[in-house]
Specification:
Layout (H helix, E strand, L loop, with lengths): L1 H19 L2 H23 L5 H19 L1 H21 L1 H24 L7 H13 L4
Helix pairs in contact: 1-2, 2-3, 4-5
Amino acid sequence: MKNKHNSCYDQYANNFQIGKTSSLVLTLSGVLKDILLVMASMAIFHDPVSPLQFFGYSIALGGLIYYKLGGEKLKEYMAEGQRSWADYGNRAPIMRKLITFALVLFVLFLFLGGLGSMFPQYDPTEYAKDKMGHFMGNGN
């Protein structure tokens, strides 16, 4: 009997929410709930997330932000960020180059680290022994 009342209440709450907003807002709030659940499970239970899953959640979160702010507001924020970055480059050009270089290295290592798990059968020590053997005259 209790589940029947809970189900009825949930249905009423969903209908009320759709009536006050729209079905799109209900769908988008479900997407946000899913993203928050994944983030909580990563933080609490240390569940692994693959790079492909991370990329997908990033796209979903970007879509939510775009829907919330709109294109014009995002363009304003991007322009302000570009101005701040250019101003920082004028004040500290060496530090700006170091930050850019570090970010490029981070993305490169992140990308190559994700690709590394695709080739578990590759053993570089065997390749090096084979090449060193040829170099030293011990190879076949």
